[in-house]
Specification:
This protein is mainly beta. It has one domain. It has one helix and seven strands, in the order E-E-E-H-E-E-E-E. It has one helix spanning 43-47; strands at 2-4, 9-21, 27-36, 51-54, 59-62, 66-72, 77-83. The protein has a seven-stranded antiparallel β-sheet with strand order 5-4-1-2-3-7-6. A hairpin with a 4-residue loop joins strand 1 (2-4) and strand 2 (9-21). 14% of the residues are buried.
């Protein structure tokens, strides 16, 4: 799997998309990604714009998401959580 942003192309190890109910009134779309990278300097910029997920069977396009958090997981991997 791959993820393509406006500025970069990453190998994608893991991808989850779901809707969560933060409180009784608000539903939030959440995208969780684990990408191959050790450079966290451009994560917020890359994933706050439009990005596309390419799997072997389908492609998904996400836009207007906000980076909620990101952190290193293991060696050369970053977990990115985006919300909308």
């Amino acid at each position: 799997m791959k993820v393509q942003t406006l500025n970069a192309y990453y190998n994608l190890y893991e991808f989850h998309h779901y809707i969560d109910n933060i409180d009784d009134d608000d539903l939030v779309n959440i995208v969780e990604l684990i990408i191959e990278s050790d450079d966290m300097s451009s994560i917020e910029t890359d994933f706050s714009n439009t990005f596309a997920i390419e799997t072997t069977n389908q492609s998904y396009i996400f836009s207007h998401y906000e980076v909620s958090e990101y952190y290193a997981v293991g060696e050369n991997s970053i977990k990115v959580i985006c919300i909308k």
